């Protein structure tokens, strides 16, 4: 049985788990799933789902999606995917929301846009991409849906019935925030994908996303043929084998006309012969290993990388050894992992993901001093890599050097104030240092950034009770009022839909 059947895509999970309940609650029947066209957004439509409301909805979905088991919480992958998307969206019209890309552990070839500029990419899609320009082409297409507000326009077209779906989604998300065991939390991606699938973009909308994405690809100096070549291979594969490429071609209807349109546009522009970056090959190798769902899958991935080391050259060969090393780490065969790491770095080849692996191997050997030395050197060489900063903090914590860890994490928070894990790690070190107030304040920040506002308020109340400093208590009181205001806004948002 292929992996895609053993691990159903989140869209199929949504169809099985969510849609029956929502459809039953949304009588009369919903409008057809595939809109014929997309309407203009008049004043009333804009009031029904304004850009601000769409952003709020996307934020709410994403906060709960962080707890979905399929979500890949890997800073190296998230930074790479979001960085590529923001290079593309820098050439989008003014007013386009910030694009954030996340990875989903699923071997099927798929990607999907959510409200608020969030884009999900399946591991299977990255693994299937033959070049960085192909991956950029898919991201550009999804950003095109965001730029054209296809989700909002589709929701408006579905009118009241689909708004009931949105209200049910928001209610489920808010309920899940108050209970970490709520089943809704594990369905967040499925709920988002259900709305996306229910809308079913028309071919005209897909062409619109193609053209918008094409313009961004060209402006960002990617090879514009990447979009056409990837979609072309998927279209051919889906025709030859119903299971291959099925997820993407089902939710993004491809056609000869669309392919011809992209190819004709490519003839009228300068083709940038942009080689794939080394980051692309290492990210693709890690994605292949991360989508392995069992010990047998891991062995098969290791064998794949072993074959690649005899076929590939240069950076691709190094990435293959890196993939092997990751597989051996999963099997706890650290000596073999270290041998693969040494092979990957032969000829003085280096990459930040290789250095991250070296730190992890040192920690696996409980050699914290070596881990700190490696991490310090790596952070100095690649200061913009969040994953290395986290590895540095973890190495200090494992060595029991918690005050140094706190000082280092404070620096990272100034650089990346939107990274919740820095606050969580700081809370751990403050706890070990016996600083209860700072521990709880940092945990409150972590909970607030991951959408658990009630838990954040509880942490702040505990911090206030432990503090004897009037100024500090005043700061905590102000933060509690802020979080309570945000909770009220969520309730008001729900009432707006329910009314």
From TrEMBL:
Necessary cofactors: Zn(2+)
Peptidase M48 domain mapped to chain residues: 85-265
CC annotations in GO: membrane
Pfam families in UniProt: Peptidase_M48 (PF01435)
Signal peptide (from-to): 1-31
SUPFAM superfamilies: TPR-like
Entry GO MF terms: metal ion binding; metalloendopeptidase activity
Keyword Zinc belongs to the record: yes
Keyword check for Zinc: yes
Keywords: Hydrolase, Metal-binding, Metalloprotease, Protease, Signal, Zinc
One GO term of the biological process aspect: proteolysis involved in protein catabolic process
PANTHER family according to UniProt: METALLOENDOPEPTIDASE OMA1, METALLOENDOPEPTIDASE OMA1, MITOCHONDRIAL
Protein name: Putative Zn-dependent protease
Native organism: Pigmentiphaga kullae
């Amino acid at each position: 049985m292929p992996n895609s059947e053993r691990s159903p895509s989140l869209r199929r999970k949504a169809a099985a788990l969510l849609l029956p309940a929502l459809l039953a609650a949304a009588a009369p029947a919903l409008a057809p799933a595939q809109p014929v066209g997309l309407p203009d957004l008049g004043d009333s439509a804009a009031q029904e789902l304004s850009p601000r409301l769409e952003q709020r909805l996307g934020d709410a979905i994403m906060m709960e999606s962080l707890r979905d088991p399929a979500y890949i919480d890997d800073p190296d992958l998230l930074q790479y995917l979001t960085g590529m998307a923001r290079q593309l969206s820098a050439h989008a019209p003014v007013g386009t929301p910030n694009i954030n890309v996340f990875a989903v552990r699923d071997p099927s070839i798929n990607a999907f846009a959510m409200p608020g500029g969030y884009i999900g990419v399946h591991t299977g899609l990255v693994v299937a991409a033959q070049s960085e320009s192909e991956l950029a082409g898919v991201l550009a297409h999804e950003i095109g849906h965001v730029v054209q507000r296809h989700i909002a326009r589709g929701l408006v077209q579905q009118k009241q019935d689909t708004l009931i779906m949105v209200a049910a989604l928001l209610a489920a998300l808010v309920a899940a925030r108050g209970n970490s065991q709520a089943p809704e939390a594990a369905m967040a991606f499925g709920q988002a994908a259900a709305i996306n699938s229910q809308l079913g973009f028309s071919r005209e909308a897909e062409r619109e996303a193609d053209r918008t994405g094409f313009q961004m690809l060209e402006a960002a100096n990617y090879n514009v043929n990447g979009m056409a070549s990837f979609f072309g291979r998927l279209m051919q594969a889906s025709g030859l084998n119903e299971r291959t490429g099925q997820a993407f071609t089902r939710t993004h209807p491809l056609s000869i006309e669309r392919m011809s349109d992209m190819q004709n546009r490519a003839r009228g522009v300068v083709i940038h012969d942009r080689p794939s970056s080394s980051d692309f090959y290492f990210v693709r190798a890690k994605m292949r290993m991360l989508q392995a769902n069992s010990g047998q899958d891991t062995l098969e991935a290791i064998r794949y990388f072993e074959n690649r080391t005899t076929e590939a050259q240069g950076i691709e060969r190094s990435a293959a050894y890196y993939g092997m090393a990751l597989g051996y780490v999963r099997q706890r065969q650290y000596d073999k992992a270290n041998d693969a790491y040494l092979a990957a770095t032969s000829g003085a080849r280096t990459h930040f993901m290789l250095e991250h692996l070296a730190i992890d191997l040192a920690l696996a050997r409980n050699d914290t001093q070596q881990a700190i030395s490696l991490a310090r050197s790596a952070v100095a060489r690649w200061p913009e890599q969040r994953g290395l900063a986290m590895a540095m903090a973890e190495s200090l914590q494992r060595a029991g050097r918690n005050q140094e860890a706190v000082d280092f994490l404070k620096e990272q928070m100034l650089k990346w104030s939107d990274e919740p894990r820095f606050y969580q790690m700081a809370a751990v070190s403050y706890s070990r240092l016996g600083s209860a107030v700072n521990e709880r304040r940092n945990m409150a920040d972590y909970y607030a950034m991951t959408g658990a506002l009630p838990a954040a308020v509880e942490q702040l109340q505990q911090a206030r009770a432990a503090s004897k400093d009037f100024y500090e208590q005043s700061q905590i009181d102000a933060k509690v009022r802020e979080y309570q205001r945000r909770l009220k806004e969520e309730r008001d948002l729900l009432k707006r839909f329910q009314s």
